[in-house]
Specification:
4 copies of one chain form a homotetramer. With 225 residues, chain A is of the alpha+beta class. Chain A has 2 domains: 132 residues, 2-Layer Sandwich (Gyrase A, domain 2), CATH 3.30.1360; 66 residues, no CATH class. Chain A is built from 8 helices and 6 strands; from the N terminus they run βααβαβββααβααα. In chain A, the strands form 2 sheets. In chain A, strands 1-2-6-3 form a 4-stranded antiparallel beta sheet. In chain A, strands 4-5 form a two-stranded antiparallel sheet. In chain A, β4 and β5 form a beta hairpin. In chain A, α7 packs across α8. Chains in contact: A-B, A-C, A-D, B-C, B-D, C-D. Chains A and D meet through α3, α4 and α5 of A and α3, α4 and α5 of D.
Chain lengths: 225, 225, 225, 225
């Protein structure tokens, strides 16, 4: 997280302006400690707007197939590294031994189980080879004066990219509700593991800034208010 | 302004990630001083997204007819005092002697000229009387046990309300481009004076936080990028 | 409803492009009848995006205090009658005998019970009187050449206005989930009765266009997907 | 275009409700022919909201690197083919002989000139080879039981995908202003040629539905209102 203006306190003055009007200004510098009940009530009954007066900017490095899912979330601000403006580096994501490789179940509700050693070896070998061939092709075209935006079309979806994304706490909760899998969640989600890893890191950073809000989110079934 | 995370620097790392990727992290703590040219280029050619990684929360007190126009701006977060949850106070806006009262020209491009003394006296007297009668009616109904949300329907549009509004710099520029009148503006706007007064205060607060961005906005004809 | 492009069928091709790609084009002209299960699944697990490829434009006439709540819904397109451009007509909402007048309970969860005859008479009399005085003040100012945008500030919140609002089915479901009260709703809402009356009419219009989607919405606890 | 509810007439009733209130209902079924002046005025002075009461759903087939740019446009509804739910087909975009291959100028304002025959041959050969190797790797992993969402990470950005996208006319104009290059445009844009080809097709479809609006857009420098 490179910038943040996000505290539990920010929820309170925004919520209290409803009932207290101009007197809510006294809450701007109050401490949130005694107001866990109000935050919990807002979360439970899905009064979402008081959670919007916050802002967090994250720096994210992840493979392009993760960014593809990420940017479907429209209540957010993005700036990303450009394959048109910059020569992309040969940095690729290769699934590690802890990545469950075999899917079971139906579309929309896949479960994943561990792959065999042979499967893991295959994934590593094939991914590496495909990346090498693609990057060689990319380099060959650049060397011969072909534009970056043309040459990059051969690069694989597992190429790393980098971006800044800015969200408020409400939008982040929506992201987390869809991009993490949790048995306590009221509405089930089945995210791809790689975006879930991003989401988990973001959730940690957010939880340390807004612990009461995070606790209320978890306690109420991880439903974005 | 009750909260802000908005600096010229925030524009730079977001802009530079396009061309520098992970190296843009070095810009997160850099100073913006030498980068006025980049900010000006982004503004002129309307590359708007780098201006979004910022956040400002304003406390606004204004008459309801101003809030009605304000809330048409959808890229913003609002929480407002509620006439359902709170007994509204008898605070009303009455146009002062500096308020130009007479409109000329066509819908969409009204110009306003000063009213006569008689017109000013009339506006003050009529506004006061209408507010008094309305507030008495409101009080009578409350005293007899009528719900606040019913009683408040008699209150005039000039009743003051209060809210918190959170925007990013790009959204704020869009607001300012439409809600201020400026002979240097590339696209003309004809806002009602009362919302323009809000906009002017917000612009001042923003300009002190992001002076280079503000200067580039003015210099490029007050067009939101 | 003055325009609509909204059918249950529109949900299906959008949902099926995930699994069928270009073959989903065959669903563009298919009938939805046999696909109630898919629509129900999308609703239950909150896959919301396939419900967005629809559009409905409503003409709404309602008092200004209703429009104030309405326009807090940001995923929608609005154009409203303007008190700056037009002389407003003396048409006011006066609560009828069926309007429950007495609130009980806490902010955020008010219940309403019937008023006494005395209370109803009071509300009618006070509302009429406040409207009359306000409209007279408005007329007096207009007659003396005061601009419409100034004179209208005395008008009460119960003045009728008119607008066109365009939404897609997902946004409409969010509106309905918050602006109707239903004992079957999974998340409780306590809307003001007057906006609920608008919402009920809109729901009827929508249900006749997209009966399977509407049934799935009701069956799954009126949670916007 | 698979669905549309978009006519020049839709702009008119939405614009006229400002000045005519309930009488604008008479415009709902009026013809736009005599109202080119109003549409032109709205476009020139950037009164954008009346253009939003329209809806167009396009089916788009394009390479993933085009979709990556497309989905940065947030005022739109998307559903896309999924590499998690479906085995992707071996269909790849290979730049043809008309594709200018050599970039000149600075980031943000590249101009492109024709490549040599050698460059074209190289691009075709390298792209084909990278696609073949990648698709073989993909197939090998699928055959051995590796999940689709893992195997697809090796596929190149030039792989074709398919989606439905729904926009209103205002949002479409914003898209066109940024994703087409036109010497008459008031603000210059330098889109990648492949997304511009999509944009040109979409513009044609839109122009035939809303000819007066399209003409006003072109005439006023292709600035989204």
């Amino acid at each position: 997280m490179v910038r943040a203006s996000a505290r539990d306190e920010d929820v309170l003055f925004a919520a209290r302006v409803s009932t207290k009007g101009e007197q809510s200004l006294a809450d701007v510098d109050a401490e949130a400690g005694r107001s866990a009940g109000l935050i919990n009530y807002l979360m439970r009954d899905r009064h979402g707007s008081p959670f919007e007066h916050t802002s967090m900017t994250f720096y994210v490095q992840a493979p392009i197939f993760v960014f593809r899912e990420f940017m479907r979330h429209r209540i957010a601000s993005y700036n990303e590294e450009s394959g048109r403006y910059r020569e992309l580096r040969p940095v690729f994501y290769v699934p590690g031994p802890e990545r469950a490789l075999v899917q079971q179940g139906k579309p929309g509700a896949y479960e994943f189980v561990a792959g065999s050693e042979a499967q893991h070896s295959l994934v590593i070998a094939q991914t590496r080879r495909a990346c090498e061939v693609a990057y060689e092709a990319y380099q060959r075209m650049l060397e011969e004066g072909v534009a970056r935006e043309v040459a990059r079309i051969v690069l694989p979806l597992t190429t790393y990219s980098s971006m800044y994304v800015t969200v408020n706490a409400r939008s982040l909760m929506n992201f987390l509700s869809l991009r993490t899998k949790d048995s306590e969640a009221r509405f089930p989600s089945y995210p791809q593991r790689e975006i879930e890893m991003c989401a988990e890191l973001m959730e940690q950073g957010w939880a340390s800034l807004m612990p009461l809000t995070h606790a209320a989110f978890v306690q109420n079934g991880r439903v974005a208010p």
